[in-house]
Amino acid sequence: MAVAGEWFLPQWRSWDTSYREDRKVLSPTTNRPRSLVDISFHYCPGCGHGIIHRLVAEVIDELGIQGQTIGVASVGCSVHTLSYFDLDMQQAAHGRAPAVATGIKRVLPKQIVFTYQGDGDLGAIGIGEMFHATARGEKITVIYVNNAVYGMTGGQMAPTTLIGQATSTTPDGRLPDRDGFPIKVAELVSMIDGSAFVARTSVHNPVNVARTKKAIRMAFQAQMNRLGLGLVEVLSPCPTNWHLSPSEAMKWIENVMIKSFPLGIMKSLER
Ligand code: SF4
Fold it and tell me: Beta partners for 213?
């Protein structure tokens, strides 16, 4: 699957466990994770943020670290993340979540610190923060949600927008000669020595939701074992700005987006 990835990234491996085995990591959906506040999400119908919030909360509950975990929210549709997690949360300026997380972790090294960022936040204004936090080997976890557009501000082209993808600022589709190429954050972070765990996952169907949860757990464990920075890039639907129904958005990830952003574990120092 990952032709270029295999050449550049010798540790790359696609998921190799069975559907049945993957499903075992999912919790019963009737129980609200303790690490989530009991309020409704404001996200659009079919948005992936709610799924990813739940997975992060389930992992924190299962690792027993709710009382020692601090989250850093970013700017974008997920700016209200800090309202949804029943954790100590801090808001960062646009793109600066890894720097804020660095400060928290260095002052409180026994706490578990994670950032929750979108592609407009992390992949554009914040990409320098991301690379330098990785190069410093910060013991933090980064949950990076890639939906290939700026969601909150109206669906403009993001650094991750696919070639040919129509957005509000590229209505005729992203053209390489004019608009450049999508940035593959996970591949780049995996090539920096300070990263300990890097994966790209998706939430477009149950088996990939389960794999996303596994990856989030492994990224937190890399921090708990003080191995280095962990990043999970999650492909996530934005039906509103893709102008698709929720089910069409899931199919678009499967049929189109994964071809540009292949899934798999790119680096795991624990293996
Ligand atoms: S605009 Fe997109 S990313 Fe933002 S809440 Fe709506 S569906 Fe989710």
Answer: none
Phi-psi region of 109 (alpha: psi -120 to 50; beta: other; left: phi over 0): alpha
Q: Tell me which residues of the chain have a pLDDT lower than 70.
A: 1-29, 270-271
pTM of this prediction?
A: 0.93
**Which of 43, 121, 145, 156 to mutate to test ligand 1, by most ligand atoms within 8 A of the CB atom?**
43
Asked if residue 237 lies in contact with residue 82, where contact means CB atoms within 8 angstroms, the answer is no
Ligand 1 centroid, distance to 222 Cα (angstroms): 30
Q: Which residues pair with 234 in a beta bridge?
A: 145, 201
pLDDT, one tens digit per residue, over 232-271 is 999 999 999 999 999 999 999 999 999 999 999 999 996 4
Closest CA to 158 of 128, 187, 182, 142: 182
What single-letter amino acid sits at 254? E
Q: Which contiguous run of DSSP H or E holds residue 267?
A: strand 264-268
40, 44, 53, best to mutate for ligand 1 pocket (most atoms within 8 Å of CB)? 44
